[in-house]
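Structure first, sequence second, as always.
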C-alpha cells in the first residue's frame, strides 16, 4: 500500500514538473512573440516614417521642378510673344514705307555686301542674279546701281521658292561667292541690333528682360 502511494506521489511530482516546464516554455514563447511583435511594430513604424520622409522629399523635389518648368515656360511664352510682336511691328513698318524708300534700303544693303566681297579680294564678276518682289524695271535699276557693268546677268527666279511675295530680295551667285540681300534679312538684323530699343518703344521699359534672366 505504501509502495502504491509512493508511485502515485512520484507520478504527481513528474506531472507537476512537466506542467511547470510547459508553463515556462509557453511563457518564454509568449514573451518571444510579444518581443517580436514589438520589434516588428518598430520596424514597421520606421519603414512608414522613412516612406513618409521619402515621399515628402520627392514631393518637394517634384514641386520645385514643376515650379522651375512653369517659370521657364512663362519666360519662353513671354519671349515668343515679344518676338512675335516685334516681327509684326517690323513687317508693318516695312509695309508702310514708300516704295522708293524700300528699294533704296535694298540697294544700300546690296551695295554694302558687294563692297565687302571686293574688300575680301573675291572676284566681283560672273554673277547670276535672281530677284523677287521687284518689277523688271526696278530690278534693272537696283542691279545697275549695285554692280559694275558686265559683271552680272539676270535670271528668272525659280518658281516655288516661297520668297517672292512678302518683300523684295536679290540673290547673286558667282563661282566662289554668293550675295543675298533682302528686306526680310535687313529687318532681322535690325531686330537683333536694336532689340532692346524696339522692345522698349513697343511695350515699355518693363518689358525688357534683365541680362541672363533666361
Amino acid at each position: 500500500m505504501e509502495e502504491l502511494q509512493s508511485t502515485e506521489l512520484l507520478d504527481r511530482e513528474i506531472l507537476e514538473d512537466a506542467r511547470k516546464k510547459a508553463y515556462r516554455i509557453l511563457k518564454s514563447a509568449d514573451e518571444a512573440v510579444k518581443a517580436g511583435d514589438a520589434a516588428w511594430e518598430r520596424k514597421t513604424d520606421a519603414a512608414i516614417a522613412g516612406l513618409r520622409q521619402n515621399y515628402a522629399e520627392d514631393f518637394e523635389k517634384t514641386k520645385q521642378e514643376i515650379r522651375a518648368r512653369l517659370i521657364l515656360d512663362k519666360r519662353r511664352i513671354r519671349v515668343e510673344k515679344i518676338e512675335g510682336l516685334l516681327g509684326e511691328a517690323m513687317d508693318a513698318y516695312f509695309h508702310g514705307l514708300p516704295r522708293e524708300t524700300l528699294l533704296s534700303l535694298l540697294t544700300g544693303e546690296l551695295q554694302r555686301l558687294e563692297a565687302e566681297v571686293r574688300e575680301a579680294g573675291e572676284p566681283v564678276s560672273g554673277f547670276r542674279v535672281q530677284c523677287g518682289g521687284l518689277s523688271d524695271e526696278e530690278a534693272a535699276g537696283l542691279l545697275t546701281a549695285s554692280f559694275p557693268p558686265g559683271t552680272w546677268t539676270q535670271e528668272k527666279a525659280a518658281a516655288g521658292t516661297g520668297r517672292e511675295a512678302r518683300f523684295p530680295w536679290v540673290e547673286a551667285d558667282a563661282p566662289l561667292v554668293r550675295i543675298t540681300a533682302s528686306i526680310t534679312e535687313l529687318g532681322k538684323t535690325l531686330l537683333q541690333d536694336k532689340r532692346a530699343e524696339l522692345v522698349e518703344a513697343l511695350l515699355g521699359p518693363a518689358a525688357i528682360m534683365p541680362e541672363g534672366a533666361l
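Margin note: The CA atoms of residues 127 and 152 lie 4 Å apart.
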